[in-house]
């Protein structure tokens, strides 16, 4: 049977279809090429942005590292200066305290209107310490805010001064308190230590020869405390 001859319409349809297919492939190819080109362009731009961002991050990191180094150096310098300042303050306080090395202060409910060597009679009557008028070079009496009398005396004889200070317990029975004269920093340090004693964080705190000492417990030996930082370190607060 002879092959069937395609009609003219079928040829025209096939030709149009072929052209459309070719056109579609060309446009598809162009679109794909454009997409690839755009992708490469965006990829290059992104790489450039990432590179710039990395440069910025690296620069900031370098600046931060430099600032940290400067900050550490500054902290070290400040720490060194603070140590020097504390040393100088303690030295100045020590020189000031040395001016009070012969002074003793008695505080209590007693009356001395005009301090004179007759005050010795009051002291000997209150305790059994050995103290002579010739050893006393200065008297000064005043009233505290609470109305108690404060008698400050300068005792040139060290042995007699120690004897008076050792009579603290005897004086305390008469509600008279005997203490060394301390500088303001030393007094505040002693009061801080005594406050810790009340809180049961220390066993005892006292002054001797213008220095502050503590005992952490009854079996512990005495520790000299030069400043509040050292006190906190010893107590752990």
Give an account of the 3D structure.
This protein is of the alpha+beta class and 237 residues long. It has three domains: 69 residues; 81 residues, Alpha-Beta Plaits, CATH 3.30.70; 55 residues, no CATH class. The chain contains six helices and seven strands. A four-stranded antiparallel β-sheet has the order 2-3-1-4. A three-stranded antiparallel β-sheet has the order 5-6-7. A hairpin with a 5-residue loop joins β2 and β3. The longest helix has 91 residues. It is rod-shaped, with a radius of gyration of 47 Å. The mean pLDDT is 84.
Mean pLDDT: 84
From the spread of the alpha carbons, the general shape counts as rod-shaped
Helix and strand content put the structural class at alpha+beta
Q: Report the top-level CATH class of the largest domain.
A: Alpha Beta
Number of helices: 6
**Number of structurally distinct domains:** 3
What's the arrangement of secondary structure elements?
Layout: H1 8-98, E1 103-108, H2 119-126, E2 136-143, E3 149-155, H3 158-166, H4 168-173, E4 176-180, H5 184-198, E5 204-208, E6 211-215, E7 223-225, H6 228-235
Outline of the structure:
With 237 residues, the protein is of the alpha+beta class. The protein has six helices and seven strands. A hairpin with a 7-residue loop joins β6 and β7.
């Amino acid at each position: 049977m002879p092959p069937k001859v395609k009609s003219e319409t079928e040829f025209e349809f096939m030709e149009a279809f072929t052209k459309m297919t070719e056109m579609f492939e060309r446009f598809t190819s162009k679109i794909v090429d454009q997409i690839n080109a755009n992708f490469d362009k965006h990829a290059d731009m992104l790489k450039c942005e990432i590179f710039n961002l990395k440069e910025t991050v690296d620069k900031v990191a370098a600046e931060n590292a430099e600032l940290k180094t400067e900050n550490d150096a500054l902290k070290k310098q400040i720490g060194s200066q603070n140590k020097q300042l504390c040393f100088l303050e303690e030295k100045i306080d020590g020189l000031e305290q040395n001016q009070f090395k012969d002074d003793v202060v008695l505080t209590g409910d007693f009356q001395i209107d005009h301090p004179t060597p007759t005050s010795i009679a009051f002291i000997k009557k209150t305790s059994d310490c050995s103290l002579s008028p010739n050893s006393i070079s200065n008297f000064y009496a005043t009233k505290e805010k609470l109305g108690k009398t404060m008698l400050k005396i300068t005792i040139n004889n060290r042995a007699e001064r120690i004897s008076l200070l050792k009579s603290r317990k005897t004086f305390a029975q008469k509600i008279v308190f005997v203490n060394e004269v301390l500088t303001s920093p030393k007094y505040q340090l002693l009061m801080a230590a005594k406050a810790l004693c009340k809180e049961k964080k220390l066993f005892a705190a006292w002054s001797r020869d213008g220095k502050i000492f503590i005992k952490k417990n009854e079996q512990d030996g005495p520790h000299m405390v030069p400043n509040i930082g050292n006190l906190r370190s010893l107590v752990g607060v």
